Structures are given as structure tokens and as C-alpha cells.
């Protein structure tokens, strides 16, 4: 069985095509190719204290995230909310957002991005960056190529 669902099936936790995306483990569950670009689903494993990407806005995608474990401080349009296991985060296109994993154990979330056509290429580029804190001079144009705007700190 493939490590990514193409047509029906099960991909176990922490399995699937994997990337290291700015300090987070990404495991692809349903590729965008498996949905004709309609969506892209992945599991994100985040160590305690690891921040998400810089606050940013998507021009094209909506992100719906289910918190499986951990605790996250979630910033959406200037408001911070704590999200825990069982909560759902909605990063609708056009909203400024980011998160930080604030729990004591690794946090696990499952994300569905719609449409998902460009997200695998985006993750491949992010995964190719050197380890350590990402350079804003590299991130800003990379995000822009995929229709995302990084906001000033």
C-alpha cells in the first residue's frame, strides 16, 4: 500500500510522504493529486515551544485544522485563542494567522487545505531550506510565489 492515500485506504499516524517544514514534521495523508488539486491533507507534528510559520495571509487557500494532541496558541486576525485536543482551527483565506505549540508534549494536528494543488510543491521548497530558524529574506519571496503574504512582525 502506498504511504499516501490516492483512492481510499488508511495511512497510519506519522506515516506518509514526509517533510521537515521549518521545524515541524509533516506527513502527507492525501495528496493533492489524489483529489485533482481539490484538497491536500497532512499531519503536522510540532515539538513543545516550536512556533508556526510567521503570521501570514493566504490568497487562494482555506485551512481547516483538527487538534489531535497538544496545546496551541492560535493567532487569527489579531486575536489569540488556546486550542486543545478536539478543537478545530479555521484559517480562512484572507485572514492573518499563525500558531505556537505551547503544550509540554509534541502537538499533533491534521490539516486539510482547499484547494490543495500547490501545497506539496510549497512544502518541498520549505523542506529544502537549511535547518534552523528560517531566513525572512528567503521566506518572503517563497511564500509570495504561492500566493501568501508574510506580515511584518
Provide an overview of this structure.
The protein is mostly beta strands and 153 residues long. The chain has one domain: Jelly Rolls (Sandwich). 12% of the residues lie in helices and 40% in strands. The protein has 2 helices and 11 strands, in the order ββββββββββααβ. The protein has helices spanning 119-127, 136-145; strands at residues 18-21, 24-30, 40-46, 56-58, 62-69, 71-76, 79-84, 88-91, 97-101, 107-114, 148-150. The protein has a 6-stranded antiparallel sheet, covered by helices on one side. Strands 7-6-9 form a 3-stranded antiparallel sheet, with no helix packed on it. It is globular, with a radius of gyration of 15 Å. The N and C termini lie far apart (44 Å). 30% of the residues are buried. The mean pLDDT is 92.
Quick recap:
With 153 residues, this protein is mainly beta.
What keywords describe this structure?
153 residues; mainly beta; Jelly Rolls; six-stranded antiparallel β-sheet; three-stranded antiparallel β-sheet; 2 helices; globular
CATH C-level category = Mainly Beta
Task: Give me the CATH fold name.
Answer: Jelly Rolls
Number of strands: 11
- Give the biggest beta sheet: 6 strands, antiparallel
Mean pLDDT score? 92
Q: Helix and strand string, N-terminal first?
A: EEEEEEEEEEHHE
What is the architecture at the second tier of CATH?
Sandwich
Distance between the termini: 44 Å
Strand order of the largest sheet: 1-2-3-10-5-8
Radius of gyration over alpha carbons? 15 Å
CATH superfamily: Jelly Rolls
Question: How large a portion of the residues is in β-strands, by DSSP E?
Answer: 35-45%
User: Treating each run of at least 4 consecutive H or I residues as one helix, how many helices?
Assistant: 2
Low-pLDDT windows of residues: none
**Total domains:** 1
